[in-house]
Amino acid sequence: MSACRTPLPPETLLAYWLGELDEAAMAAADEHLLGCVPCGDALDALIALGDGVRRAFTAGRIGAVVGPGFARRLAERGLRLREYRVAPQGHVNCQVGADDEFVLSRLSAPLAGLDRLDMVMHPGDGGPPQRAEDIPFDAAAGEVVVVMPLQRLRALPSGTERVELLAVEPAGERRIGEYTFIHRSAAG
Ligand SMILES: [Zn+2]
Prior knowledge:
This protein is of the alpha+beta class. It has helices spanning 10-18, 23-35, 37-48, 70-76, 150-155; strands at 54-55, 64-66, 81-86, 91-94, 102-108, 116-122, 130-132, 143-148, 159-169, 172-183.
């Protein structure tokens, strides 16, 4: 197996996997990956890091919900991480720096004993809410870890987005946390 002279950077592979590259970048990455074994292996390794990862939204609007070890392992690979921890009913001021390679939100919530958890994102631009059903969560750690869609965050104007966690139970739905992200655009 020959080495790759122009390897796709880890953040491009991450964005590719999250489905948040634009059409041209996606086509370029696809073409590269078709002909390049080392980069294909790197992508496979990245996906394998996600222990139980499921894509929450294919459109890349909210990102992916990942297992608890994912962030640590990405950081071990040298990616620059920005992290936001948010308490239930909490809020956080957030912005994306030019050097950030990925952004994580850690939503803490009382998760013990839950069977199914849904996440609903209310975008700040007044667009329709986005719902991810039956997301993975770490009941012992009491948190949901979300890889935020970096390309989208970079393009986002200043505004406020809300995320709700809903326990889905036989008796109905119960809101167990609401998280407010007060986003400040780098453009001001
Ligand atoms: Zn390559």
